[in-house]
Amino acid sequence: MDNLKEQAKPLIEYSRRQGPKEERLVKMIFGLLENEAVKSVNIPGIGIIDKSIADIVSQLNNLGYKTLSSCSGVRDDHSPEWESKKGYLSFCDTFENRALAVKIPNIEQYNPKRGYTYLQPSFTLRFDEQQLPNLIHELQSLCSK
What we know:
two-stranded antiparallel sheet, 5 helices, 6 strands
């Protein structure tokens, strides 16, 4: 990670001169954005995860379902300035991860989208704070099978 920080340093400096949004975007692309959560857990080998989803993110990764990025979407996990109202789980776009996702009942309610996260092929599930408990329950059920 330190090598990546050094390599990205000139781009971050350049983006800083362009403005705060640009700097944030460059840091996000390189996976160097500081976690904006107030309540978070540092999971070795995974990173800093919002407290409300730390257990399920850890469980998924330990079972081989690699996540790339996440946000709980829970207001209490974040600072008062936090603007987003949606949470998300971004997974590496692998056959195993897609096979898990298609088993989630009514997956369309989580608006699955394929794309890129930190320049890696991914698919992302999006949810609001009210949907989170149900999604966690569904994922835990699938992981225990």
